[in-house]
Amino acid sequence: MTSFDIIVEPTNYSLTPRTLSLLASISERLGEVNAAHLHHPPTLLRRAHRVSTIHATLALEDSPLDRRSIAQLLEGRSPDGQSPAEREVVNTIRLYDLLPSLDPFSSQDLRQAHGELMHGLALDPGQYRTGALEVLYGDRPGRRKAAAENIPVHVEQLLHFAGNDEAPLLITSCALHYGLVHLRPFTAGNGRIARLWQKLMLMQQWPVFSFLPLEGFIQQHRTGYYAALEQADRQADCGGFIVFMMERIDEAVHELLQRERTVLSGPERVATFLLGRNRGRFTRKDYRHMFPELSPATASRDLADGVTHGLIQRTGTGRTAWYGPARP
Q1: Residue 6 scores a pLDDT above 50
Q2: Distance CA 133, CA 145 (A)
């Protein structure tokens, strides 16, 4: 039996040890991203990430287009008489180009983004809905309808919360994502705009999120994504959804670091490690903590090469050895 949604506070969330563990892991990885200067990738890599991101976010909405078709549209090879699926891609590309100029805490910018996203696809792009809306979790109907009363007020409250919450930004951005999906302020495109709006919020502090294909990792766990949204609705607590999204963020940043590290030489890894440290003294164990994919032998060889190249100096021998930046 379907019932009308009684508007609950969509920003209620509980924190668990798992949430805090993920927060620490992501924060450390983002520090490595900045230290390795990976937040400004080459143009070709940025375009590849853009294709992957658009493909994944539209695949969550059952778009039939593959990556090749999306890449062609991104390159401007747009066929005459675009299909709705092609229009979705073109609109999303335009919105991604617009995204850096938008304010994640502005309801006017939110409606502008939705208008761009749903241009030619909805009768009321950029306008809040005025009627109740059936709630779907993916392709499965829920047990409630999202009410239409006071949507502008609820959206303003949600954006004010996002701009003033004292929790770490990683957590607040996940709550904002859930809140927009829960409120469903538009007749269509609510999931897409919610994912984009979390991206926009994260981009403000970490530019890497402007191209990081987070949506691809959500798509890989599509069933879990919708299950987490439904559980949050049922429990009136989005703590579980926050954990789900932070797991995907952790995976996305880890994958970026793993891929980029494979092209670094030993001296380059040592230099990257030194950029990310706030204190001078460290051990081989500390070094491997940043590069967990390295074997102990490879880590030892990196450090020995670092000493040879004058990047670091060593004190002691064997397992008791410790290192520090080379003195000028």
Answers
A1: no
A2: 5
